[in-house]
Amino acid sequence: MKKIHVLFFLVVSVALSSIGQDINYYDPYSPAHEYHTRELNDPFTRLIEDFESGKRELDKSSGKAFVASLLEHLDVPASSQLLVFSRTSLQTRKISGSNPRALYFNEDVYVGYIPGGKVEIISLDPELGGIFYIFDIPKGGELPVIERSGRCMNCHAVVETRRVPGLSMRSVIPGSNWGKLVSYRDKEIGHQIPFSERFGGWHVTGDPGISDHKGNLKGEKVGGKIVTEVIEPGTEFDWSAYLTETSDILPHLLLEHQSGFMNLVLEASYRARTYQHIGKGETKPEYVAVLHGLAEELVRYLLFADEAKFPAGGIRVDAQYREDFLADRKEASNGISLKDLDLETRLFKHRCSYLIYSDVFEATSDLFRQQVYEVLGGAISTEKPDPGFAYLSDTEKKAIRSILRETLSDLPDGW
After folding, report:
1. Which helix (H) or strand (E) segment is 120 a member of?
2. Which of 140, 135, 28, 29 is nearest to 91 (CA)?
3. Which of 54, 252, 336, 353 stands the most exposed, by the fewest C-beta atoms within 10 Å?
4. Confidence of residue 31 (pLDDT cuts 50, 70, 90)
């Protein structure tokens, strides 16, 4: 599978070089995208006016209460909480083992909170991607001054986010000053990354069933080598500063999956807009071919073709977050859903990502989306099986097709 994955990227690289590498699809300020002037349609931006007009109220009694009420308005479950203790974000001076940064998220919004620091938000505009905000927790009952931040683009519009305003993930071993000693993953994001390279600088709580990971570790250099020690969550900080006492494995896995998906789809959106802008409303055949290559890559990702191998005993997760995650599942008439979890040998029972329903995917060009459906239909065919998807049984393929037929409205005729 890895050889196929590498070969695919070589093919795409050749395709890109054949049309010239001077096409700057990722310049967000170009006339094709107008990142800073286009009217925004992301969840947090839509709420700002309600906050300012008083239509919606935020609890300003404390920092913790403020964040809890903000999450409630954004429909972000507090149980999604993840804690990061490495200094790998904008507010580096505030983060440490004794003051981790909390992250909360759903499929559209990602909220960062550091006790004593600022609130950071990535809110996904379906067409433009990440819209970044940073602001102080209010004091004295006043609303915060909400600033749209350009500094976040330094880490959220780079190679690892496919150069578009997306989602960044880091895995490092922090040293005594909580900055990185060594990093992993080599600028790659997604569910294909082995667990042995994930979660560095993050806390992992409970008994997840994964022993070979980099979570909960702090290091120091001894004799030219890095020696690590385990920092048990809650031993260097007070849980009462946070909304829950978890940094569970399930939100870790879903954040990784969502980040890889969103960055890939946003690249396709940025490319499609750029190609149409160059062609004055038309997409030239050579650009159609590039988008088709991305559609093939996305289908492999949608169908978890390269998902990291699960431990033999499966994975154990927090019951509250599991319940919150499943609350909005879209069911087919027989009761099955793309959100149904497996957790024994893989993340999901029916391996097609629930993010196919996301606003970000729905906002892609009709051309790209129909390419995805075409490739996806072939990948889950039982009549003409594609050897690249032989890991999917006929039963699972049929289940995926039945769910999609009942829950998507824009599938091609005859799909």
Report:
1. strand 118-125
2. 135
3. 54
4. very high
What is the CA 311 to chain-centroid distance, rounded? 22
Asked if the model's pLDDT at residue 166 lies above 90, the reply is yes
* Cα dihedral 147→148→149→150 (10° resolution): -140
Cα separations (Å) of 389 from 103, 307, 309, 324, 375? 34, 12, 16, 31, 12
How far apart CA 258 and CA 251 sit, in angstroms, is: 10
Does the residue 380 lie in any domain? no
CB of 62 within 8 A of CB of 200? no
CA 351 to chain centre: 17
Structure tokens that stand for 385 in this block: 């099986």
Q: Exposed/middle/buried for 246, CB within 10 Å: 0-12, 13-18, 19+?
A: buried
Q: What is the pLDDT of residue 138?
A: 85
Question: What is the domain extent for residue 78?
Answer: 40-241
Burial 85-97 (b: 16+ CB within 10 A, else e): bbbbbbeeebbbb
Q: Letter for the amino acid at 375?
A: V
Q: For residue 162, what are its two tokens?
A: 């496919």
In a domain, 33, yes or no: no
User: Is 219 a member of any domain?
Assistant: yes
Q: How many domains, the chain?
A: 1
| pLDDT at residue 280 in the model | 94
